[in-house]
Automatic annotation (TrEMBL):
This is Neuromedin-K receptor. It comes from Felis catus. Keywords: Cell membrane, Disulfide bond, G-protein coupled receptor, Glycoprotein, Lipoprotein, Membrane, Palmitate, Receptor, Transducer, Transmembrane, Transmembrane helix. It is found in: Cell membrane. The gene is TACR3. It holds the Pfam family 7tm_1. Residues 102-356 form the G-protein coupled receptors family 1 profile domain. The chain crosses the membrane at residues 85-111, 123-148, 160-181, 202-224, 244-276, 297-325, 337-359. Residues 414-465 are annotated as: Disordered.
Length: 465
């Protein structure tokens, strides 16, 4: 992934978008393969026809002039017809529009409504911010670079373009990982205190710091090169293509393989716990309500994670294969493969708001409020209540909820005793257990064995709905 998806690794692979026959993009991509010697890389560059007679444009020793080639061989094999460019432009434009506006609305829904400010939703804010930022600052710029093989945006933006995508993807995937771990702790070990608002902010800050550290080499080694008729943006590693390839693999492991493994394990355990079995007989309504709410949230987050994994998989495969099999960079249709895999990866930024709207009633109510100006959108009183009211307020001092324990008094008359016919004896009944209000008494034993993962001192149904 090296540059995710900035000019760093595709750098000049993305130049396949508009280069000469061999294309500098292909040559640089070929050079990214492990074990490629400098001499072989220079030979590829010269063969590509992008450097007139030497490779000094990349700061490397000059090579011998390439033998002249017939003019016919210098035609651009990656030039696309206008209709195809228009279709790709429309596809990328839709991704950017939906991702930016959709994620901004998600952020507004959570921050503007107190009922939505939960631990999980704070991580969703972080996820939405990183997705919207990458769509706004990265997608169209890379698309333009891929089409024209020309860097129009200056040296500073070249550094930002190589640096920020890795940062944003790291923040996105580890926000999802934090949600998975939080769900695991809330369901498997609910008696432990949940993350406070301060702790949540510290976790989010730590995610961004680690993301900056991982992406910093991309910023440090980014360069632009002005050549006759072309300006390139790329990453020049001090130890050459082998170091670049190694970094690429490390990034894939850290922003794809490892977090998906963690989420796979946690959601598997949570799924077995939530869907593994039911308590026989009638149980409390509170249990069913919380279980249902937890299932909905876990289901929604599993869909978000699976969507991310599917969208980014072809992109990572593309770069690994083109680094190992260098000849693929000269294939006639490699530009279309790149544009398709890059579009799919970037489209991951627009699906989450759609998933939230379809699977969560409060987000759906929030989207209705945001689009209430549309003539076909109607906001009902129920939708308004979804974002304004709460069902109950749990406290940290109580074992489950703030409940007043009351003792009932039973008055017993004994008609057979005339002396006591006007008197009464009061018996105190056993205090009622507040945690089983509404539960069938015959199932109180079985319910008590499972209540440890149903309710927590620090959660309510609002946390999961």
């Amino acid at each position: 992934m090296g540059s995710l998806p900035a000019a760093a690794n595709w750098t000049d692979r993305a130049s396949t978008a508009g280069a000469d026959p061999g294309n500098l993009s292909a040559a640089l991509a070929a050079g990214a393969a492990p074990g490629t010697t400098e001499a072989e890389w220079l030979h590829l560059l010269v063969q590509a026809g992008n450097l007139s007679a030497s490779s000094s444009a990349l700061g490397l020793p000059a090579a011998s002039p390439a033998p002249s080639q017939p003019r016919a061989n210098l035609t651009n094999q990656f030039v696309q017809p206008s209709w195809r460019i228009a279709l790709w432009s429309l596809a990328y434009g839709v991704v950017v529009a939906v991702a930016v506006f959709g994620n901004l609305i998600v952020i507004w829904i959570i921050l503007a409504h107190k009922r939505m400010r939960t631990v999980t939703n704070y991580f969703l804010v972080n996820l939405a911010f990183s997705d919207a930022s990458m769509a706004a600052f990265n997608t169209l710029v890379n698309f333009i670079y891929a089409l024209h093989s020309e860097w129009y945006f200056g040296a500073n933006y070249c550094r930002f373009q190589n640096f920020f995508p890795i940062t944003a993807v790291f923040a996105s995937i580890y926000s999802m990982t934090a949600i998975a771990v939080d769900r695991y702790m809330a369901i498997i070990d609910p008696l432990k205190p949940r993350l406070s608002a301060t702790a949540t902010k510290i976790v989010i800050g730590s995610i961004w710091i680690l993301a900056f550290l991982l992406a910093f080499p991309q910023c440090l080694y980014s360069k632009i090169k002005v050549m006759p008729g072309r300006t390139l943006c790329y990453v020049q590693w001090p130890e050459g293509p082998k170091q670049h390839f190694t970094y690429h693999i490390i990034v894939i492991v850290l922003v794809y393989c490892f977090p998906l493994l963690v989420m796979g394990v946690t959601y598997t355990i949570v799924g077995i716990t939530l869907w593994g079995g039911e308590i026989p007989g009638d149980t409390c309504n509170k249990y069913h309500e919380q279980l249902k709410a937890k299932r909905k949230v876990v289901k929604m987050m599993i869909i978000v994670v699976v969507t991310f994994a599917i969208c980014w998989l072809p992109y990572h495969i593309y770069f690994i294969l083109t680094a190992i099999y260098q000849q693929l960079n000269r294939w006639k249709y490699i530009q279309q493969v790149y544009l398709a895999s890059f579009w799919l990866a970037m489209s991951s930024t627009m699906y989450n708001p759609i998933i939230y709207c379809c699977l969560n009633k409060r987000f759906r109510a929030g989207f209705k409020r945001a689009f209430r100006w549309c003539p076909f959108i109607e906001v009902s009183s129920y939708d308004e209540l979804e974002l304004k009211t709460t069902r109950f307020h749990p406290t940290r001092q109580s074992s489950l909820y703030t409940v007043t324990r009351m003792e009932s008094v039973t008055v017993v008359f004994e008609p057979s005793d005339p002396d006591n016919s006007k008197a009464s004896r009061k018996k105190r009944a056993t205090p009622r257990d507040p945690s089983f209000s509404g539960c069938s008494r015959r199932n109180s034993k079985s319910a008590s064995t499972t209540s440890s993962f149903i309710s927590s001192p620090y959660t309510s149904v609002d946390e999961y709905s």
